[in-house]
């Protein structure tokens, strides 16, 4: 799942010399000219500060602490000059009441979930590109999307997913009722990705917008609850028009940069 917006990563430079930082312990002995030899007690070196140790990490390595973002683990490590990129449709809908209804049901069976504050429907995998590709990719994507028509997404079900790394599970709104229109957009995005030899989207995409998540693979626990969760969503739809979403633009996020492509 993709975070919006993502903070810029902090990189640390590594020295080219292997001798700049040596934290191993060395024992030394001294001979005293007193007629007998005495071995001097080895001096214990003080540990280096963390700030100094971090400076001598591998060149492209960035420290990542899952505790700083709810226990979530990166799908891929930070690398110098690599920009995580996603093509998506943001949902400009108010789902607070639906989320509260779902959370109440899940809490009653001992499952704790976190809300996704800016839900979106993905149209690409997370792509990793160098900075100097950004402008060309934006131009290519715009050219491939400009002939596509606006559409209305109708969310018709609650679905459960787990990410490929099995580190998080998601509760999502299914959007396969407009699969034909969304597939046309994905084909345009895939065409752009192929020009840069980037991964294309899934062959049989299951279009959805995740609205909540929990740590680890909880699909075996969540899927038996689908009927109850679907009933809650049905109640929500009867009193709200937030299950529909009009799409006039396709969006792309790369690092901390955002781009928007109008549909006709």
TrEMBL record:
Please list the residue ranges that the record marks as compositionally biased, kind Low complexity.
1-14
- Localisation per UniProt entry: Nucleus
Cross-referenced HAMAP family, in alphabetical order? Answer: USB1 (MF_03040)
Spell out the InterPro entries in the cross-references: Cyclic_Pdiesterase (IPR009097), Usb1 (IPR027521)
Question: Where is the region Disordered?
Answer: 1-44
In Swiss-Prot or TrEMBL terms, this protein is called U6 snRNA phosphodiesterase
Q: What is the lineage of its organism?
A: Eukaryota, Metazoa, Ecdysozoa, Arthropoda, Hexapoda
Q: What is the role of the protein in this entry?
A: Phosphodiesterase responsible for the U6 snRNA 3' end processing. Acts as an exoribonuclease (RNase) responsible for trimming the poly(U) tract of the last nucleotides in the pre-U6 snRNA molecule, leading to the formation of mature U6 snRNA.
Which GO biological process entries does UniProt record here?
Answer: U6 snRNA 3'-end processing
Entry GO CC: nucleus
What's the family?
Answer: Belongs to the 2H phosphoesterase superfamily. USB1 family.
Q: Which Gene3D superfamilies match?
A: Cyclic phosphodiesterase (3.90.1140.10)
Kindly identify the residues recorded as the active site.
Answer: 120, 208
Q: Which reaction does it catalyse?
A: a 3'-end uridylyl-uridine-RNA = a 3'-end 2',3'-cyclophospho-uridine-RNA + uridine
| Bias (Polar residues) | 26-39
What top-tier enzyme class does this entry carry? hydrolase
